[in-house]
Please model this.
Amino acid sequence: MKVCVVGQKKAGKSCFVRRAVLNKFYDRLLDEHNVSVYNKNFIGVEMEIWDPSTSEQQNTVLQGSQAIIIVYDASQLVYSATTVDLLQYLQLELDHLKKTIVPRPLLVVVGTKSDLYPCLHLQDIVRWCDEKMVRHFLVSARFDDIYAVCRVFRYIATTRNKTCCAIV
Ligand SMILES: Nc1nc2c(ncn2[C@@H]2O[C@H](COP(=O)(O)OP(=O)(O)O)[C@@H](O)[C@H]2O)c(=O)[nH]1
Ligand SMILES: [Mg+2]
Model:
């Protein structure tokens, strides 16, 4: 199953993926120009997790994804203005993905860096995700353990299994 991770630069995409796959945290930017691909089995579902660095790379590797994780920097949720910017970004990204990826993938939103500031406007994002019927997770790649971060991938695996059963 191909899973792609997208989001703005420095949102915390690579750290999120590395915590989930390698259980490591790197306190600096790495692989800024690469597309990293990791393989890992989550509750019986073999996943190929793609972590492109730039938005150009994101657009070229997205096709064929059965699930896409939109990662955002939850430390932005401390101000209303940055929360509004974030909601605009999420709306654009969601519209773009729904239009361009066929067949339509499972979409998940993940806020990361929850350790940095209190997420004062978290409810705005959670409400938005509820309206769009997209599952939302809040994590810290720095301090959460691998089990907590992997909730996202277990959710994707479970939802995919349910969809397959429904089709059969
Ligand atoms: N405090 C904190 N910093 C983080 C977390 N995740 C990422 N960072 C930092 O945010 C910066 C960007 O992270 P990175 O994963 O490379 O972002 P990417 O460009 O979206 O792949 C790096 O300096 C990371 O150390 C987190 O959960 N908590
Ligand atoms: Mg990265």
Remarks:
- The chain has a mean pLDDT of 92.
- Strands lie at 2-7, 35-42, 45-52, 67-73, 106-112, 135-138.
- The radius of gyration is 15 Å.
